[in-house]
Specification:
387 residues, 7-stranded mixed beta sheet, binds pyridoxal-5'-phosphate, 13 strands, Aspartate Aminotransferase, domain 2, Aspartate Aminotransferase, domain 1
């Protein structure tokens, strides 16, 4: 009765297709800015994490050219062997300075930073409590650590406290983990309350600022800056692949945390150092985030305008305080239908469906570089298309 590999995969894929969960890449054939070309069609792009428009910034490109001319392309080895360059030190210094922490450590991606940091910090005797909507990399990092894992209801501090009351005493260390801006909903974790709870129950708090960095806070440092929170028990984590406009991940925290990770974190030790071009681009991206606040202002002007236009058109968005806005829809079919209708009208807004999220929706990522007239046109079409 053993299925062949092909039969097994075919069955699994047809289940996905029946549920209308099947997904495919979209091939983009030009510069990916606030417009993109897919299948020869130019579309206004509402699917990009490049919130500030830095991924195509000329200064990031120039930094890449200069750095590759000087150091080459590949970093040739792991950080502890032959992969470490001055550029990595510079980037880690810039991140620590933005995040207002003593030190930072860069990884080849945010996903690897999360997997490695959680699994290095936590072990069998420990407890991890995570928001049920946390990013996949946080959930898989928790699994890899072999700690006991409990999920609390989304943003629900009462549920978290309840679970701590029942379970904290049975474990050695405890780590509370949360996205700062939730990647598929755009709402924000109650970080001040979470920090209070972490103090009360002697837990550490890991905050993933993937969608907060560059967007939230006066300097663009993220939600911790936005709330004015600083504490020894906080571990900041994030990506260089979103508003920073490059690729890579990081952890920011105390000197001893970084020293520990340099010696214990498998996804940092046993992989090749972040490539030269990515490192150079990220360094320039962080510098621009710190020095060009007008980009963040433009982004927030666009976010607030789109919310206002939705409101006027009676389109009810999910609660959000970030650059991610979601329009909830009845089911996957409806979400796909409206997404394709928008595409016919020149807008690229993907339908996000289960299993990525519990309920189907259109997810819009706002950029600092979107035009007011595009936002107005979009709401005009949405107002007519949505039930
Ligand atoms: C995108 C994202 C990551 C992964 O970062 P990459 O650098 O793309 O691997 C991790 N956490 C959250 C919350 C994210 O949105």
């Amino acid at each position: 009765m053993n299925d062949s590999l092909g039969q097994h995969l075919q069955k699994s894929l047809s289940t996905i297709k029946k549920a209308r969960w099947y997904r495919q890449e979209q091939k983009i054939t030009d510069l990916s800015g606030y417009t993109i070309t897919i299948d020869g069609e130019q579309l206004i792009n509402f699917a990009s994490n490049d919130y500030l428009g830095l991924a195509t910034d000329i200064r990031l490109k120039q930094a890449v050219i200069e750095a590759t001319e000087r150091y080459g392309n590949g970093s040739t080895g792991s950080r502890l062997l032959s992969g470490h360059r001055t550029l990595h030190d510079d980037l880690e210094g810039a991140i620590a300075s933005l995040k207002q922490t003593p030190k930072a450590l860069v990884f080849s991606s945010g996903y690897l930073a999360n997997l490695g940091t959680i699994s290095a910090l936590m072990g069998k005797k420990d407890l991890i409590l995570g928001d049920e909507y946390n990013h996949s990399s946080l959930k898989n990092g928790a699994k890899l650590s072999q700690a006991s894992i409990l999920e609390y209801q989304h943003l629900n501090c009462e549920d978290l406290v309840d679970k701590l009351n029942k379970n904290r005493a049975n474990h050695r260390h405890c780590l509370i983990i949360t996205d700062s801006v939730f990647s598929m909903d755009g709402d924000i974790a109650p970080l001040p309350e979470l920090l209070d709870i972490a103090q009360k129950f002697d837990c550490w708090l890991m905050v993933d600022e993937a969608h907060g960095t560059g967007v939230m806070g006066k300097q663009g440092a993220g939600c911790l800056e936005h709330f004015g929170l600083k504490n020894e028990r906080i571990i900041q984590i994030g990506t260089l692949s979103k508003a920073v406009g490059s690729l890579g991940g990081y952890v920011a925290g105390s000197e001893i945390l970084i020293d520990f990770l340099r010696n214990r974190c498998p996804t940092w030790i046993y992989t090749t150092a972040l490539s030269i071009p990515d490192t150079a681009a990220a360094l320039t991206g962080i510098h621009i985030i710190r020095t060009e606040a007008h980009r963040r202002h433009n982004l927030w002007t666009n976010i607030n305008l789109l919310k206002k236009l939705c409101n006027q058109a009676n389109l009810t968005l999910l609660p959000s305080d970030s650059a991610i806005l979601c329009l909830p829809l009845k089911d996957a079919s409806e979400a796909l239908f409206i997404s394709s209708k928008l595409r016919d009208n020149g807008f690229y807004i993907p339908a996000i469906r289960p299993p990525t999220v519990p309920t189907s929706r259109l997810r819009l990522s706002i950029m600092a570089t979107h035009n007011i007239s595009d936002l107005q046109k979009l709401i005009g079409i949405l107002g007519k298309s949505c039930p």
